[in-house]
């Protein structure tokens, strides 16, 4: 896959796990961000095809990152990889325009399914 992905998670270990899954799915052009603010800065200066973000991060949450991306007019897929499952917060993310959720912990196959689903939609 030739897509460029922005990966935002404050856990370096989790970024490595997700990065390995992305590489296994053929996605090698990945920009990592250690918090939401860093991700937002990267998003504003680089063209991405997809964003994978944690919900709870310092500086800026994944939800605020999502809201900023949508307010900027971008419709690219944004997948939240999170332990957040409280109904009200999930609804808030849906209303903000999240494309999909991936609950932690996850199987690599599930991440790959979501990547193929959303990146294939971009290609068609």
TrEMBL record:
Keywords: Phosphoprotein. The modification 4-aspartylphosphate is found at residue 54. The keyword Lipid biosynthesis does not apply. GO terms for biological process: phosphorelay signal transduction system. Residues 4-119 form the Response regulatory domain. Gene3D superfamilies: 3.40.50.2300. PANTHER family: TWO-COMPONENT RESPONSE REGULATOR (PTHR43228), TWO-COMPONENT RESPONSE REGULATOR ARR22 (PTHR43228:SF1). This is Chemotaxis protein CheY.
